[in-house]
Amino acid sequence: MSAPWDSATHPPELTPGPGGWLRAIARGLPLAVLVFGCLLILLLVRLIERPFFGQRRPVTPYITQFVCRSAFALMGITYRTEGAVMDGPGAVVANHSSWLDIFALNARKRIYFVSKAEVAKWPGIGWLARATGTVFIQRDRREAAAQVAIFQDRLALGHKLLFFPEGTSTDGQRVLAFKPTLFAAFFAAGLRETLMIQPVSVVYHAPDGCDARFYGWWGDMDFGPHLLATLAARRQGSVTVIYHAPVQVADFADRKALARALETSVRDGVVRSLHP
């Protein structure tokens, strides 16, 4: 497992005043009702959906998508997208800056995250991940054949699988090198010939007057204080999700060349959006 990215300094922790607490409550309570209320509905629908459709999930992904779009509206964060979403099954790779990425990437198009197996055991988060169809994999070269089989099965169902090739989250102001080991499975027979991958840039713009890294969540930052600061903000910023042109794995000589090309597309999108 990769060590978390860190930097010498973090944005100062902000202690909300009375107004901040009121804003946090006014935003947080409806957000909690939305997330956990819809999770209950999703689980009930899955009781019917699973026996008839298995992993195909013709209904529940729309619940997840509705929650993610609505979450930004409740938090007051402006949500924008650019570019065309890839048609059909395939893989999606994006930079990773915040827990908000889950909402941002699910809001426009139905996707399924690929995560390390340990996440399935995390309290709360693991339950949510399993309920929404996350694909859990062992980050072990000895499991490579099993990973390919899992990817093939999910792609055959028409799923789009989302990967974070940086291996960790950052402050949102940079894109780390993509780890080429992730792409080795894509070159297996049966995937390389047909698999399309779409690079996506997720860019956060902080509220006016706030640290540019306001929405970034990385290193040893705690989730609770970061969530509170986000909900308590007097003004909110925005997030832009940029969809770049998909590429075909077969067009690249090896996993390193593929990783570099995807990394370049994602980084260019972040730089253009942050520094127009």
Protein described:
The protein has 276 residues and is an alpha/beta fold. It has a single domain, classed as Glycerol-3-phosphate (1)-acyltransferase (3-Layer(aba) Sandwich), CATH 3.40.1130. It is 40% helix and 14% strand. The protein contains seven helices and eight strands, in the order ααββαβαβαββαββα. Strands 1, 2, 3, 4, 5, 6, 7 and 8 form an eight-stranded mixed β-sheet that branches. α1 runs antiparallel to α2 and α1 crosses α6. The protein is globular. The protein starts with 17 loop residues before the first helix and ends with a helix. The model has no long low-confidence stretch (mean pLDDT 89).
- Tell me about the largest β-sheet: 8 strands, mixed
Distance between the termini: 35 Å
Estimate the global geometry from the Cα principal axes: globular
**CATH C-level class:** Alpha Beta
- Quickly count the domains: 1
> Poorly predicted ranges (pLDDT <50, ≥5 residues)?
none
Gyration radius, to the nearest Å? 19 Å
- Beta content: 5-15%
Total count of strands: 8
CATH architecture: 3-Layer(aba) Sandwich
Which topology does CATH recognise?
Glycerol-3-phosphate (1)-acyltransferase
Give the H and E element order: HHEEHEHEHEEHEEH
Overall pLDDT score? 89
What is the quaternary state of this protein? single chain
Helical coverage, percent range: 25-40%
Total helical segments: 7
- Structural class assignment: alpha/beta
